[in-house]
Specification:
The complex is a heterodimer of chains A (349) and B (120). Chain A contains 14 helices and no strands. Chain A has 349 residues and is mainly alpha-helical. Chain A is globular and about 65 Å long. The relative contact order of chain A is 0.11. Chain B has helices at residues 2-29, 33-59, 63-92, 102-112. Chain B is elongated, with a radius of gyration of 19 Å. Chain A binds chain B through residues 197-198, 200-202, 205, 208-209, 212, 342, 349, and chain B through 74, 77-78, 81, 84-85, 88-89, 92-93, 114, 118-120.
């Protein structure tokens, strides 16, 4: 008799909802609904990670997948059409065949994977026993995930923060600087664009919440050593606070509070801090990103190094989110001309 | 004491779940967007609120209760605001409520013009 556990039921239910959401995304032509559904899909993924006890990953998935990317995709929608173009049947069949082909290959590949929870799976044997058994002595942080992410796997995480840096730079290069003149024009008449009237409740509530959102972001940043959290999540949360500000008070006000040169500088400083810690450890006689040499005690050095690189990641992610949002929203505001309160782009609804 | 706490917390949690189910049913069955929004707001406020208070009783005087309380306050502020923003945005984009008579429709239109209803 097979014993059914609660987590199995939750798994099946969550996976079922994910499949249903995926089918809905494929079928619906209204892209606004598709964006919302993909946010729900991310949230379901986060739930799945919680069931699997991977709270750090769940946290990131909820913050980045359901939060930040949804807002950015809505920003993209403001630049393009709200409806998906219907493909001719012939092309649709080709696409369907390609999807089926890839899907079959993926399923075939999954046959080689170890069973879920198999104790003999390679993941439980290679380096993981060392991380779990020795990280307390070597690094001394209660949250092993942070030890793995920022110290054992410090190179990977540095690469990830460079990817985010590159993404933000790419967005600035492609659309951030375009139509400079229109942006200046629009800044000359902020009242017209912002449509402050008619949003009293939103303004009051957001003003009330934004300080606490930023405070929570800082908590997540500095508490990442002890519980779920860290630079990625904190950067997204603080970035979300500023995106919320921009959505409600308009892009011009956001850029007055947080000028473009500030976000650009913070973006660069974030990755510079991460790589700089690595260079410092080399100058102090260790390997690149070997935090042991940063202080007299190896574990103290590890704590300091992890704190610094996590802060670097947080800065880079925060600045990247705000930069990308501003580039998209600025382009949308420039495209819709003249901007009326009823028809405007991001920030009017 | 523990027994009474358990009974109270389970009553609250089940009540919250009942509100969630009613809200979900209403979301599917009610006829126009605003009525459905009303059903959805039931989940956000009463449903989540009752479940959270029930969970707080289960957790006792711990840090978990404090965190649950903070999340509850956050939801208490954000959900009605989100519902409000959604309804207002829909009204501004000419999604009119499904009302029975022409008089009521006129009232809706009058409430929507700038000046009389545009303050909030």
């Amino acid at each position: 008799m097979v014993e059914i556990q609660t987590s199995d039921l939750l798994n099946v239910a969550t996976l079922f909802f994910m499949a249903a959401t995926g089918l809905a995304i494929a079928r619906i032509r209204d892209l606004f609904a598709v964006v919302m559904l993909s946010g729900i899909y991310s949230l379901l993924g986060a739930t799945l990670y919680v069931i699997l006890d991977a709270v750090d990953v769940a946290f990131t998935e909820a913050a980045v997948g359901a939060g930040a990317s949804t807002v950015l995709m809505i920003g993209t929608l403001a630049l393009t059409s709200r409806r998906e173009k219907a493909l001719p049947n012939k092309q649709a069949i080709k696409g369907m065949l390609a999807c089926l082909f890839v899907g079959v290959i993926l399923v075939y590949g999954s046959f080689d994977m170890p069973l879920y929870g198999d104790p003999t799976a390679p993941i439980h044997h290679h380096v993981v026993p060392r991380y779990l058994n020795d990280s307390m002595a070597e690094i001394g942080l209660p949250n092993v995930v942070t030890s793995v992410l920022a110290s054992y796997r410090g190179y990977d995480t540095m690469g990830e923060s460079f990817v985010i840096f590159t993404a933000a730079i790419g967005v600035i290069t492609l659309i951030g600087r375009a139509r400079r003149k229109t942006t200046v024009d629009e800044r000359d008449q902020p009242e017209k664009h912002l449509s402050m009237e008619g949003k009293l409740i939103l303004r009051v509530v957001s003003k009330l919440l934004i300080p606490f959102i930023i405070l929570f972001g800082l908590y997540v940043q500095w508490h990442g050593d002890f519980g779920p959290g860290g630079g990625f999540q904190a950067g997204v949360i603080v970035g979300a606070a500023f995106v919320l500000y921009g959505l409600i008070y308009g892009l011009g006000t956001l850029r007055t509070a947080l000028p473009a040169w500030v976000t650009r500088t913070v973006l660069s400083l974030g990755v510079l801090l991460y790589a700089g810690v690595g260079v410092s450890t080399m100058l102090m006689g260790g390997n690149f990103l070997d935090y042991d040499v940063l202080a007299h005690e190896p574990t103290h050095g590890q704590h300091l190094g992890i704190l610094l690189v996590e802060f670097g990641v947080g800065m880079a992610v925060f600045a990247a989110i705000v930069t990308i949002f501003c580039a998209f929203a600025g382009r949308a505001a420039a495209d819709v001309n003249p901007v009326t309160p009823e028809s405007g782009g991001v920030g009017n609804d | 004491m523990q027994m009474a706490l358990d009974i109270a917390s389970w009553a609250l949690i089940l009540g919250g779940i009942a509100f969630c189910l009613i809200g979900g049913y209403g979301l599917l069955k009610l006829k126009d967007m605003y009525a459905r929004l009303h059903a959805a707001s039931l989940i956000d406020t009463l449903g989540v609120g009752l479940v959270f208070v029930g969970l707080m009783l289960q957790a006792g005087w711990t840090l978990v209760t404090v965190k649950l309380f903070l999340i509850l306050i956050f939801i208490f502020f954000t959900s009605p605001t989100a519902t409000h923003a959604l309804a207002k945005s829909a009204l501004n984009h000419d999604v009119l409520p499904d009302v029975d008579t022409e008089e009521e429709r006129d009232m809706v239109r009058a409430g929507r013009t700038p000046g009389s209803g545009g303050e909030l």
